[in-house]
Design brief:
The chain is mainly α and 257 residues long. Helix content is 86%, strand content 0%. The longest helix is centred in the middle third of the chain and has 39 residues. The relative contact order is 0.16.
């Protein structure tokens, strides 16, 4: 009984410590955003890493998601004679939910893990301590550019994901299932509103901040050598993915009232 209480208390304290670290790191990042000079070169490098190099995996995920969604929707709607609404469902699902969420989870797996591994390696090899010795703010130098890159580039990735997902659904619906291309396009344009796209992009920006903050936090506070770097990398992906799904629910409940 006492062992169980000890284990529960230790886990609760560790959880609260992680929340405190994350909150303090976020405050330091927000302070670093308004300080000059601005680390523009580092930010552009991270934007390339987060955005450009993540584009292939995001596009592959999006096109097959749209294709599968068209297949499933067509088979279900055929029972009710509503095959013409396949385009509408694909477009709304991609722009509102699947585009932002799936793109962010893929980026979390690729970029969040890389951030945790890079900063974790710098921590265990005392490179971060060397920056402090040289009077360089490690948060502003290492975390702020990654935070900005995630916040800015995720919406751009989601734009491409939405577009490619809708095209994938169009290809399957028209060329495989025999749906009218005119009906697919017209129904998509008829029911898809500009707010559906913008809210999805807002979600993506929030998800990008979560990915960068969690990845940097896990790496920044790494300990335990190479084994600790491995744990931090795994933890960054898992925690970021879970927070994306949780925050997606609350953002959806708040924005789509």
């Amino acid at each position: 009984m006492l062992d169980s209480l000890d284990w529960t208390g230790a886990r609760a304290l560790a959880f609260m410590e992680e929340i405190g670290r994350g909150g303090m790191l976020l405050v330091k990042v927000l302070r670093g955003l308004v300080r000059r000079p601005f680390p523009m070169k580092l930010t552009l490098q991270q934007m390339e890493e987060v955005g450009v190099r993540s584009l292939p995996v995001v596009l592959i995920t999006a096109i097959f998601t749209g294709a599968v969604l068209a297949l499933q929707t067509f088979s279900g709607f055929k029972r009710f004679g509503a095959e013409g609404l396949v385009g509408t469902v694909v477009a709304l699902s991609m722009t509102r939910e699947l585009g932002p969420v799936l793109a962010s989870i893929m980026v979390a797996g690729r970029v969040g893990s890389a951030m945790a591994a890079e900063l974790g390696t710098m921590r265990v090899t005392e490179q971060i301590d060397a920056l402090i010795t040289l009077a360089t703010d490690p948060v502003r130098y290492l975390v702020v550019p990654r935070f900005l890159a995630g916040m800015i580039m995720l919406p751009f990735l989601v734009v491409f994901a939405d577009l490619v997902g809708i095209i994938g659904g169009y290809f399957v619906a028209v060329n495989v299932l025999g749906t009218s291309s005119t009906i697919y396009v017209n129904r998509t344009l008829q029911y898809l509103e500009f707010s559906d796209v913008t809210i999805g992009l807002l979600k993506a920006s929030v998800f990008g901040m979560i990915i960068a903050l969690i990845g940097c936090q896990m790496g920044f506070f790494t300990s335990g050598g190479a084994e600790g770097v491995g744990r931090a990398t795994t933890k960054a992906v898992v925690v970021a993915s879970i927070l994306i799904l949780i925050s997606n629910y609350f953002l959806t409940a708040f924005l789509f009232k």
